[in-house]
Amino acid sequence: MYTRALYIFTLVFCLVISGCSTLGFFDKSSKDDLERSKASIAHLNDQLVDLNKELNTLKKEVQQLKEEAQKEEEEEEAEMEEDSLTGQTGTVAEKQIQEEVIENKTEKKKTTEGQPAIEGKEIDIKTLKVKVLSGNGKLSSAREMSKKLIRMGYKVSDIELGPRKDFTVNTIYFASDYQKVARQLAARLGGKTVCKPLTWNSIFNIIVVAVP
């Protein structure tokens, strides 16, 4: 009887010791798993923060690209509008010149009458290739001179800004064999108009640099 009770006590004691060891093992394993889970969650949070930063950076870059594209589009529209206005201005100027020609045919005939003859071969001023340049940096000076020449009977083929802006008097540049024609034009323009030979190649016979 005593031996049997001792046997049972020993068996129960072994079971208790084994259960405690098992619980300790599982408890330790649970703590390790918990620590690993916490570390994994922290790592995922760090990755999420980094991804949010990258996303914000990409959003800023996209917004900047949109603004640059919009700015380029606005500049292109402004250039197109400016070109359109320039073309309209040129068309109006051409119409004004044509109207000047039509309205002043009679005046042209009267102006050419009584002019002193040029020595040597006479040149019809209608056949001259005349270009008018602005000598003060303003295209309006060239346009006014162009209208004046048309009223005199000359045919103006082109007008534009001159290479310099510091001309002080009207200057007539003439090609070879057109000196007499240039002097006649200078006399008709009056004032301090001067004549100079062309020193560069040009398709024009006469180039007038106009100042106010």
Percent strand: 5-15%
Number of domains as seen in the coordinates: 2
Spatial separation of the terminal alpha carbons: 143 Å
By CATH, the topology of the largest domain is Alpha-Beta Plaits
Structure annotation, total helices: 4
Mean pLDDT: 77
Number of E strands: 5
Q: From N to C, what is the helix and strand string?
A: HHEHEEHEE
Biggest pleated sheet: 5 strands, mixed
> In CATH terms, what is the architecture of the largest domain?
2-Layer Sandwich
Question: How does this structure look, described?
Answer:
With 212 residues, this protein is of the alpha/beta class. The chain folds into two domains: 86 residues; 87 residues, Alpha-Beta Plaits, CATH 3.30.70. 64% of the residues lie in helices and 11% in strands. It contains four helices and five strands, in the order ααβαββαββ. A five-stranded mixed sheet has the order 2-1-5-3-4, covered by helices on one side. Helix 1 packs parallel to helix 3. The longest helix has 102 residues. The protein is rod-shaped. About 5% of the residues have low confidence.
How would you concisely characterize the structure shown here?
The chain is an alpha/beta fold and about 210 residues long. It has four helices and five strands, in the order H-H-E-H-E-E-H-E-E.
Keywords:
single chain; 212 residues; alpha/beta; Alpha-Beta Plaits; 2 domains; five-stranded mixed β-sheet; 4 helices; rod-shaped
SSE topology:
Blueprint: H1 2-103, H2 105-112, E1 130-134, H3 139-152, E2 156-161, E3 171-174, H4 179-189, E4 194-197, E5 206-210
Parallel strand pairs: 1-2, 1-5, 3-4
Antiparallel strand pairs: 3-5
